[in-house]
Amino acid sequence: MKALKKAIMEKLHEKSSEQHRVEESANISLFRQMLAEVLQTNHLSANDSLFDLGVDSLQLVKIKNWIEEHFKVDMEIIDIYDCDHVEALENYIEEMKTVK
């Protein structure tokens, strides 16, 4: 009986981990979709720099506000300057979420 309970608990843990990965992937996908929309581009990769894509100050404020609203983290514009590549910004957001 203990072995069955252990197997069930492990399976639940795996499902929980997989669900978490799916949710994180969906959030990243929404984030990239928002970036593409704000920056008015159809081509956005993890290695793209927001500044190489032509981000301006108003767009930076939109991005910052969207991040704060959707990820429930506090962020400064300077944080986006420091993490201006798409993947770096995604990683920074994930770190900020764990600090909360």
Automatic annotation (TrEMBL):
GO terms for molecular function: phosphopantetheine binding. Transmembrane segments: none annotated. Residues 22-97 form the Carrier domain. It comes from the Bacteria. PROSITE patterns: CARRIER. SUPFAM superfamilies: ACP-like. Pfam families: PP-binding. Coiled coil: none annotated. Keywords: Phosphopantetheine, Phosphoprotein. InterPro entries: ACP-like_sf, PKS_PP-bd, PP-bd_ACP. This is Carrier domain-containing protein. It comes from Pseudolactococcus paracarnosus.
